[in-house]
Amino acid sequence: xxxxxxxxxxxxxxxxxxxxxxxxxxxxxxxxxxxxxxxxxxxxxxxxxxxxxxxxxxxxxxxxxxxxxxxxxxxxxxxxxxxxxxxxxxxxxxxxxxxxxxxxxxxxxxxxxxxxxxxxxxxxxxxxxxxxxxxxxxxxxxxxxxxxxxxxxxxxxxxxxxxxxxxxxxxxxxxxxxxxxxxxxxxxxxxxxxxxxxxxxxxxxxxxxxxxxxxxxxxxxxxxxxxxxxxxxxxxxxxxxxxxxxxxxxxxxxxxxxxxxxxxxxxxxxxxxxxxxxxxxxxxxxxxxxxxxxxxxxxxxxxxxxxxxxxxxxxxxx
Length: 318
Ligand code: CP
Known about the structure:
- By secondary structure, this protein is an alpha/beta fold.
- About 35% of the residues lie in helices and about 15% in strands.
- It is built from 11 helices and 9 strands.
- Strands 7-6-5-8-9 form a 5-stranded parallel β-sheet.
- It is globular and about 60 Å long.
- The site of phosphoric acid mono(formamide)ester has 9 residues, from helix 2.
């Protein structure tokens, strides 16, 4: 039987979505159920709902993004919001304005929803304390990327019918990855068996306390895996050499057909993007029949619609 939240959908009791940490399993399942409905809406000719009609959503991205920013924009518009994308490269941040002053300035324009990506872990939490609208974390440094973990879970559940008791191997640069962190918390909350596979230089301290099995060898780590989730090497967060060379990294940790054959025959391949083809993944695997990478992008819009809709329930109506 498919795992879902109780019926009818429980309301989402949080004003902000700052991380997966702190969410209850039934709240996560409730968001996934909402997102399933949003997938159907997104596949119709008329994709418009009016749940955010009259509301203003600002997307404030201090770091580059293709998938997250565009899908939050599409999600907000599909729900009827007025969406403004704030371009940090042409904003007064370039003249030295602080994060808090920027947030206070935007807050004075009465947005209802603020979607924020920032390079510093914890920056989005700080900002949420300074504004009067709902805040969504679109990625804060290496800390959390909650909507990525939700869209990954949605993608998995739609294929496997469940999350509980699946074996999920998260491979690559775990140390610098907010995607890994949010996924580990979410997958554990829903009862998956979570493995991480990486050289020791790409594992964070404290990984053994995160409820995962740790592997350094792809053959061992992928044995019996239902899901193989590959991660990008995050050079922009590294200050020093974490891998001897790209060639050597690809040889030992790059997902090619041979390494994928260690996993279950029906194993599915995921990657949050952006991908570095030929570094962490072979293009033939990325584009192959077991890959869900494009579908993850579709689920991204649905999950962001679900999150915005759930938070909208807490917006004042007068
Ligand atoms: N997965 C992800 O966060 O992609 P973007 O950096 O393109 O938003």
